[in-house]
Amino acid sequence: MDNSILHVYEDEIQSLEEEIELLAEKYEESQQESTFFSDEEILMSIKSFQREFQGESKGREPLSDLKVQLESLQTDLSFLMKFTGIQFTSHSKKTVEKNRNRTVQMHRLSGNCHSLSFQLEFQLLEMQNKENVTAVITDLSIIMESGEDSDVSKFVSSTEAHGNLSTFFRSLSCYAEWCEHRRCTFLHFK
Fold this sequence. Notes:
This protein is of the alpha+beta class. The chain folds into 2 domains: about 1-35; about 85-190, no CATH class. Helices cover about 55% and strands about 25% of the residues. It has helices spanning about 5-35, 40-55, 65-85, 150-160, 165-190, and strands at about 85-100, 100-115, 115-130, 135-145. A 4-stranded antiparallel beta sheet has the order 1-2-3-4. It is elongated. The two termini are about 20 Å apart.
C-alpha cells in the first residue's frame, strides 16, 4: 500500500478519535447538568406545582391569570422536553366507565424521543376512597419501531407486563440518546 494513502488513513483515524473524545466530553457534561437537580428538588417542584393547581377557584379566574398560567405551563413543558428528549405529538383520552368511586379512562399517546417514535395505549383506573385517590395502569400496549433490536422488543414486552410508564420513559430517553450518539458516529464512517 502506498505510504501517502496510509498517511491519509492515519490522519482520518486520528481525526475521528479526537471527535469521539469531544462527543464523550459533551455527553459527560450533559450528564452532570442533569444531576444538578436532586430527587428532592424535583419532588419539591412537583409538590409545589400540584399545590398550586389542586385548589379550585370559586369562580372564573381573570383572563390575564389564565394567560400567565398557560405561559408557565408552556415553559415547564419546554424544560421537560429538553431535559428528557421526549416530545408528545398527540394524546387522546376517552372515559370508559365512571361512577362514584371508580373511573376508567382509555389514553392514547404518540410521540418521539430523539429519533425514535413510539405509541402507547393504556387504561387508567382511578379509585377514590375517603382519604386519597389511587391510580393504576392496565392494558398497556407499546408500539415502537425497534427494527432488528431484540433487546428493545424484550424491554417493551416487560414494560407492557408490568405497566410501569415511568421506567419506560426513563429507559427510552437514555436508549434514544445513545442511539443518536451511535448514529452520529456511524455517519462519520460513511
